[in-house]
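Handout, section B. The chain below has 332 residues.
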Amino acid sequence: MATILAPRFRLLLGPAAIALVALSCGDGDGGTGPEMAPVATVAISPPAATIAPGGTVQLAAVAKNAAGGTLTDRSVSWSTSDATVATVSAAGLVTGVADGAVVITATSESKSGSAAITVSSPVDAVEVTPPSATILNAEDLQLAATTKDAAGNPLSDRAVTWSTDAGAVATVSATGTVRGVAPGTATITASAEGKSGTATITVTVLDVAGDWAFSETFSDPANNLTCTNEATFVLAPVAATFTGTADQTGECTVDGEPFDNAGTFEITAGSVQATAISFTQPGEFTCVYEGSLVENPPISASGTVSCTGLIDLFGQLNATGTWQMTRTAASP
């Protein structure tokens, strides 16, 4: 019986194949890929915002490399500087809690960015004080406006604008100073963030008509002239000023000799509010009176007097003194 021999095969590998095997059989250290760029900065948008208590704003944080390129898939953590004013979620959603200011910070790989958040209650009402007042023509009155939230709490640092509905009666400045212009009624309005409050201002002309008792004492520099006079003044208002006349009785003495000082006073100008008034006594010598009214409505006036002129036999008169005028009765 014949013997059958199985064929033998020989695998021959060339140099190129051996080299290929060697390259594919390293120690495994070269398969990790390039290193990730570190975070250099974190930018937050928006960088600032204002919200109301209970309101929200969504912030976004972007991590960037040293060249300013955006780095994706980097974890970011959020924090607030004051949770009693505003909180922030893990996703950057800020919620207002109470009025105030906070800094919201986003951090990635020890780098951080921040956003300034202001929590501000909206104005719900504006209160003007005093709510009503009566002033004179050309008199000033300072109004105050207080802004309040829905709970009635005062709000600070809110811009207020002022206006009047009757500028011919009363004007108002940017700071709330009202000035009377003419008799009538004006509504002054203070506005803030769409809300407003008002004050009713009545402008009047005081009725100063009535009897006024007048007295004066004065002397010249040489102390040789003294006068004591009493008179009754009847004043009639004309717009914001008044005019009137008065008969003066009494006497002056010069070196003990009597000198008749009777005459008529005419009030030529004077505002009914507490401003200067003056009037002149005609006659052999002239006296000019200056002073101011007291209280509102006026009940008295006082001031100084200066007299100059010629006196027969005694030469030049140059005297100064004081005077007082008191209202005694109002005209019907």
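Note. The first strand starts at residue 41 and ends at 45. Compare this with the example in section A.
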